[in-house]
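Anyone able to model this chain together with flavin mononucleotide?
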Amino acid sequence: MKIGKVKFPGNILLAPMSNVTNLPFRFLCREYGASMTYSEMISSDAVIYENVKTFRRGRSYDNEKPFGIQIFGNSPRVISEAALKIEGTYHPDIIDLNCGCPAKLLTKDGFGAALLESPELIHSIVEKLSETVSIPVTAKIRVLEDMEKTLKIAQLIENAGACALTVHGRTRQQQYSGRSDMEYAKRIKEEISIPVIVNGDIVDEASAEYALEYTGCDGIMIGRAAMGNPFLFKRISHYLHTGGMLEYDECMQRVIDIRRYFSLMEEHGLMHTINMRAHAQWFTRGIRNGRHIRNNIAEAQNTDEIILRIEEMCGHTS
Ligand SMILES: Cc1cc2nc3c(=O)[nH]c(=O)nc-3n(C[C@H](O)[C@H](O)[C@H](O)COP(=O)(O)O)c2cc1C
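re: yes, here you go
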């Protein structure tokens, strides 16, 4: 796949997810075949006003290429200045504009999905960003109930100079309920000529194949289904390449992955930034005895204990 001048193998992207897609998690996803990874969203105000903690979300690991940093805000000037600072500090390959987050914390200030109410402002932001940074600019949107208005926003984003567009087929009002409507990504793909990435409810081999075939999009982006399950990228890329399902031991795989995840978190000095039990819970979703394991994890005192409890419940020790 190619986004502006950035070329990369494959077309399965990891979605930006706040408090999820930290550096170690992205490392694992990439190792299992994610073609492209994004940082958690970063506030443009925080970058400009030197909020070091938030700004550090832009760090990537060596060889994390291509790597995108997602930014949010609503001032073309502030966003562009912040992007320039990010470009100079972290050297990402792509800057992505968040036009999709429905959280009140953002929308009350006119950020994230609230931008969809002001298509001309989105145009100004993307235009100014594209003029300011030397790397490709992309945008990630939710949809509006009105298809024509959504298509108009996609066209404005393309005309403003964006090099790709990701479409999550839910409205801001839906939050995460209902289903993601892939019709929007399909219509947008027909309408604009930059690469379009379809996002929303891609959870396994079949839904990945369907999303690509139905929408004709250039790539797929996976969010929640990858939480605690970075191996999903290997399953899906194996299936898309060979048509066959990967044979593996789900429980054992999760044990391997959580062990590596915690170890990488420690190595990067990030353990204090997460709720370790919450993150551990994600690694037990969808496996045998999952609920029982989650109850056990709730009482664990440290990462070794968490891993031990999962191993015991899975019937493995390694
Ligand atoms: C915990 C969480 C955090 C998220 N944070 C972001 C974010 O920082 N930026 C963004 O554009 N979308 C964010 N999203 C939305 C996802 O990127 C994605 O669009 C959405 O989850 C739909 O895809 P999925 O069905 O594959 O999960 C977040 C979603 C979740 C569940």
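The CA atoms of residues 76 and 124 lie 6 Å apart.
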